[in-house]
Structure formats: structure tokens, C-alpha cells
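Run log, item B.
One chain of 406 residues. Sequence copied directly from the ordering sheet:
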Amino acid sequence: MDKTEKAQPPLNDSGPDIPNLLLLKDRALDIAAEGITIADMRSPDQPLIYINEGFERLTGYSASAMLGKNCRFLQGGETDPETVEQIRVALATGRECTVEILNHKNDGEPFWNRLSLTPVRDSSGVVTHFIGVQSDITNRKNVEEALREANQQLEEANRRMVSNLEAAARIQRSLLPEELQIFEGISFSSVVQPCDELGGDALNVVPLAGNCYAVYAVDVSGHGVRASLLSVTLSHWFSRVLSGPKGKGFEFTPVEVAEELNRQFKMDSDNVQYFTMCFGIVDVDEGKFSYVTAGAPPVIVVRGNSESEVLEIEGFPVGLVEVAGYTETVVDLSPSDRVFLYTDGVIEAEDHAEVGYGTDRLAAALLKQGSLDLGDTVDAVLRDVSSWEATEGHRDDVSMLAFELS
């Protein structure tokens, strides 16, 4: 045997080789990835009596330079005082402690340290040492901070979006008529119940010359902001067109209005929206309602609270085809007759069996509630529609405009 080689003690058949196990344990502590320190709690200022290689790699401090010193040298001006106090209390009371603390390396670079402190007691239960295990969690903390900032930005964006939606909803509501309007020889009632903050339905009543009134109910395809923008645009379009110079009634026929809308609001690859519409003119003195439908549900007329009529649908939705071929329909009206325009959210409301409310059921409900005032009739029927629906709230915008000759 070479003299420089040390003879290894033989293993004892009665048990493990204790010296070798101790050497192995010491070596394992030295090369562990985590920083490991041992502080002597019996000496003044609890100095470090052991520092492993992992601690040297983690902090940049050498064992020879730091042994005999208190571990607080890792702290700096940015270290949280509350965390430092938590460590102090654990050391003073001999309790285990795990914290995440901002420490500094030998070159001044800050890093987040997950510090775990464990007391070691002698046979009488007195704490003699504390073992500290340090792990660099800077990357994790950076990711958490980036996520926190991203969440803050999302929350702020969401607050702005909600605020903008609320402002847009107020603007949209301001464009709607009053729920009940009474004029000479005629009264109107209207209700709009959007399924979201912003709706795609629009309706209005516009007085014209000669005791005539223009009425319309529009339902834009889709929901949300995109639908509401087109809805508001259409409301302004009607306001501009209907406020022009007029003779008795209106200078355009309902068909001409529908055709003009179809020319101006064409659906293409950039604009994939269309809308259904019922537009008409009520001549109170002559007792006539001239109207055109563009894919809208059929108009319902309740005659003197004795019978209801469901008028036929004619015309494509606006913007769907190049030439829609709209046709004007004229309905003769008598005093106490009621006319109802509405969007498809009313008749397409489904129960638990996915059965739609339907036009026939709507006509029957309007007739049944005909003894009520016009506004109360509209409210009662829309409550019945809500009761019919399986979902909480509407799945589609629900709107109705009604008028009655007196």
C-alpha cells in the first residue's frame, strides 16, 4: 500500500460505518444546492459556526470571511423590518420560522431569500444552535411581481371598460323615448330591455306635421359594443332624416326609407352586421298606419280589445341583400285599436323545453291584457315573457313599441 493512501477502516458487521457516514453527511451538506448555515445561540450575537459551499455560491461570501459573524450582514436598507422582527422573535423564543426576505449578495446585488430556521436543542431542551437553510427565489418573486402588475393593469383596464360601458349605456338610454307618451288622438308606450349592458335594439316615436308620427323598431344582429354602436348610429340617422322639411306626414314613403337604409348599410367583409326593422307612419286623422318590415317579426294589431291580427312579414333584413324589394302595407285603424311593434327577443324567448314564446302566444297575451292601460299591457306581457324564459334574464334584447288611437 502506498504510504500516502489512508487505510479505510473496515465495516463493522454489527452496524454501519459511523465515521464514513459522518463524512458523507458533512460532504452532502457542503455540496447541497441550498445555502446552509449553523448559528451558535450560546455565544454573544449568535455567530455563524458553519457555512456550506451552497451558501458561498448563493451569496458570494466566503466561509472564512463570514464565520464568527452574525448572519444579519445579508440585510440592507430595502429589507423589510417586519420580516427582520419575525426572525428576531423566532430566535429569541426558539421557534421554527420560514420567511421570504430581501437580502444582498457580496457585490450588493439584491436577491429574494427563502429562509428556513430550525432550532437544535440539547438533552435538557435548551436551544443551542439554529440551522438556517437559504434558497434563491428571485426568479419566482419576479414572476409574481410581473403577474401582480399585469393583474393591476387588467383591473384598471376593466374599470375603464366598465366606466365606458356605463357611459355608453346612459347615452343609449337617452336616445330612447319616454315609456309613455300621449298626444292628441294617440298614445304610445315603449320598453327596451337589453340582455347586456349595451343593447342592439333601438326604437322611437317622432312627431311629424299634420298629426302624423313616424315609428320604428330596429334590432341589430349580435350583441355588445359592436351592435350598440350600429344601433346608436341608426338612431342618429333616423333623427337626421325625420327632422327634415316635411309636408303633411313625411316627405319619404316607408319603402323609400328602407331602400335608402339598405343602400347605406350594406353588409360586406368589413361590416358583417345587418339589422331587422319595422318602420311606419301613423296618420291619426285618417286612421291609417303605413309601414314596411325588413326581416322584423310581424306587426300585431288588437282590434278594440275583441280580436288580434298577426300581419305578414315582408322584406329582407337591411344590408343582407343588394335589392331587397320592400313592400308597403297600409292598415286601417279605428279608435281604441292598438298596434304592437317588437323585436324577435320577445317571441324567441325559450322555456326549459326550448320552446319559444311564439307569435301566437304573444298575440293572445296582448289581447288578454287589452283591458289594461296601454303601458300596463306592455309591462304585463313582457313580465309574462320573462316568466316564460328558462334563463335568469333575457338571452336576447327584448323591445316593444305600442300605440293606440283614442
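Observations after the first pass:
- The radius of gyration is 41 Å.
- Residues 175-405 form a domain with the Phosphatase 2c; domain 1 fold (CATH 3.60.40.10).
Flagged for discussion on Thursday.
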